[in-house]
Amino acid sequence: MAAGPLAAQEIIAHRGASGERPEHTLAAYELAIDQGADWIEPDLVVTKDAVLIARHDTDLSQTTDVGSREEFADRRRGKTIAGELVNGWFAEDFTLAEIRTLRAKERLAGMRPANARFDGLYSVPTFAEVLKLVRAKEAETGRRIGVMPELKHPTYLLQDGFDTVQLVLNDLAGAGYSKDDAHVAIQSFDIAPLKRLDAMSDFMLVQLVGPQGGPQDEPGTDFSAMIQPAGLAEVASYADVLAPEMTLLFTTEGAPTGLVEEAHDAGLKVFAWTLRKENAFLPPILKRGTSENGTGDVLGMVSILKAHGVDGIFTDDPGLAVSARKELAR
Questions:
Q1: Cα angle at 185 between 183 and 189, to 5 degrees?
Q2: Does residue 28 lie in a domain region?
Q3: Core vs surface per residue 309-327: b (16+ CB within 10 A) or e
Q4: Is the pLDDT of residue 5 over 90?
Q5: Range of the domain at 151
Q6: In what residue span(s) does the GP-PDE domain sit (predicted)?
Q7: Are 60 and 167 contacting, i.e. CB atoms less than 8 angstroms apart?
Q8: Which residue among 2, 103, 134, 178 has its CA within the 20 to 30 Å range from the CA of 185?
Q9: Cα 301 to chain center, whole Å?
């Protein structure tokens, strides 16, 4: 556990510049880097032949064209993941060669119809390819770019024989990252994978928490308990950063709940998720106009998070967030 140096309000490109390109594509990551994001954030799942790929979830239905591919029709099945029955096509049932034949598509096409124009243009990248892009952009720009992968359903995948903790460390080592590189952070909603990583590396570790439920690997633990003082002290024993959903940080009127201060008192940084520009995802005081997919007050949201002392912001719209950060720094 070793928190790296952080700038004021780190901008973390959530799945790349996913407000402008289909998420988890090299195009989305590159655009985010070009827009000035400090970090890119790939979600990682695994193929049948144990290769990490960047996808929102193990189910490929919403982010690829797999559902329209007749040759894979018989792969559709139901699985229980995080206590819920999911019917779809799952990455761990496909080899990398088969994944290579799929094309990415916009997951929120109703909210972001402009992104759907790019459907079919991009392939599904491996984590190794994402890291290669980052290294290439670092050479091009002369600046370090952080990589903040999230291990998706690591406990569920481990039960199926896929050790994504070891796989992510292998890919990072293969791309030349030392085990204490300050520009690598690894996230999980689960606890055990972060504790393993704490023993195996000195990367920054990020404990994700949501407004409901709890870690999949500790069904007796609720996120609500983890954000109490005793829970925060426990998180700080193995992680460097608490990453709560934004509504846990402030009321609908924008008043602080006190969580940021309490997390800081426990020795944790706080990264908030997820800032999106559309009205549908913003609190009432920051909505602009009546359209759910209209653009709200991103500057106002960044301003509130800054006032509350948030150290980093996950965002689908890194270009807007970077601009807001500059504006607030004047």
A1: 165
A2: yes
A3: ebbbbbbbbbbbbbbbbee
A4: no
A5: 10-58+125-329
A6: 9-325
A7: no
A8: 103
A9: 19
Q: Position of tokens 């990252």?
A: 177
pLDDT at residue 275 above 90?
A: yes
Q: What is the CATH number of the domain that holds 221?
A: 3.20.20.190
Give me the pLDDT at residue 3, please.
47
Q: Looking at the 3D structure of the chain, how many domains does it have?
A: 1
Q: Which residues are catalytic?
A: 14, 56
3-state SS, residue 161: coil
Q: Alpha-carbon distance 246 to 274, whole Å?
A: 7
CA–CA separation, 146 and 88 (whole Å): 32
- Reading phi first (left if > 0) and then psi (alpha if -120 to 50, else beta), residue 229 is in alpha
Question: CB neighbours of 226 closer than 8 A, spacing ≥ 6?
Answer: 207, 209, 214, 232, 234, 235
In a domain, 256, yes or no: yes
Residue 62 CA to residue 104 CA, distance in Å, equals 9
Domain-located, residue 157: yes
| Helix H or strand E encompassing 270 | strand 269-275
The verdict on whether omega for the bond into residue 58 sits within 30 degrees of 0, i.e. cis, is: no
Contact 288, 301 (CB under 8 A): no
Dihedral, CA of residue 283, residue 284, residue 288 and residue 292, to nearest 10: 80
Length of the chain (residues)? 330
Q: What region does 9 belong to: left with phi over 0, alpha with psi -120 to 50, or beta?
A: left
Cα–Cα dist 237/273, whole Å? 22
d(C-alpha 12, C-alpha 130), whole Å: 15
Give per-residue pLDDT as tens, 36-85. 999 999 999 999 999 999 999 999 999 999 999 999 999 999 998 878 89
Pair of tokens at residue 82: 């995080």
Residue 242: the pLDDT is: 98
